[in-house]
Amino acid sequence: MNNEQPINTDSPKDWNRETQVSWNTNASVWDAKMGDDGNDFHRLLVRLATEKLLEVKEGDRILDIGCGNGIFSRRLASLGAKVVGIDFSEQLIACAVERTQVQDAIAYHVIDATDETALLSLGENSFDAAISAMALMDMAEIAPLFRALTKLLKPQGCFVFSVMHPCFNNPHISMVAEETESDGEIKTDYSIKVSKYLQPTITYGLALRNQPKPHLYFHRPIHLLLGEAFRVGFVLNGLEEPAFPANYPNDYLLVWGSNFSEIPPVLVVRLKLLA
């Protein structure tokens, strides 16, 4: 399903409500697929790069934005952090609570990350760091979140987020395999064909092939994505572009594997506030 629309400011509340309905509808399927520890995409790409940039320390208080079924919240708690996980999907928060054993290390709340007032209810100057693992591209608005983070984070606090790489893993790419013959041998070259990038768009998509309801993807080119952060005083001071290693199997369900080991499907960014 591909009902593409340009992003504008006319109906973000409507888009947000539709996205919330989609994630509540898909929650049980998503929870079953990701389980307690996530899939290889999460573990090998998102988690490793995020932890590298986050540099978790024992006792850090960390906000997990768009926590889903609590995969990253539980991981951070296992590293000694005190975690607050938020998501606007009541069903996903219910899954997170059910899967979480160490209740005293993690507090879950149903909070909409596009609602600045609700975010600030978590307490200003309360967090050493914040993360958002593969969630910003599911948010109809990101400006309210960046504004709120300038108040929620302690001095020297950081925000680490991951998204589908806007250049190489957006709704307007195609994965290409081309066979050529050279010196009597057949060679297959793999590449990404990008048809659109600069125009921010909204499209319907599937995070999982068996999810019951398509959801909205909010594609933003890098200059717009980071521009919202720069506008409120964040600076970029860390960046990772993880890809699957060259020895990774190529039968991965989401196609990304060693055939595309030179093309990163994920962008991971660390932001800090100007002193």
TrEMBL record:
Residue ranges of every copy of the Methyltransferase type domain listed in the record: 63-161
Pfam families: Methyltransf_11 (PF08241)
Biological processes, Gene Ontology terms: methylation
Signal sequence annotation: none
Keywords for the protein's UniProt record, in alphabetical order: Methyltransferase, Transferase
Molecular function terms, GO-annotated: methyltransferase activity
EC number(s) recorded for this UniProt protein: 2.1.1.-
Protein name: Class I SAM-dependent methyltransferase
